[in-house]
Here is the input.
Amino acid sequence: GLDLPYKLFGVFDGHGGNAAAAFVQTYLKEAVISAMQEHCKEGLTEERIYWALKDCCQKLDDKLPYDSSGTTATIAFIIYGKLWIAQV
Here is the structure.
């Protein structure tokens, strides 16, 4: 896991059904942790966190198993007291 003091929140609004929103809700934490481990191996910087969140959203989108549904996503990621927002 991510051995840092963090909090993660997400709001998802599915369209064409709720399947995509439920998928992202289920896999968001795993995707964020994986992206942070990949992008921040050599330490936390604003640029690395930015790319980790961007990559996380892209990978979740790529893995969506649904052709006729999708979701918006607003993600709040708090790490060391700093708030990061990602919106798709």
User: Anything to note?
Assistant: Strands lie at 6-15, 70-79, 82-87.
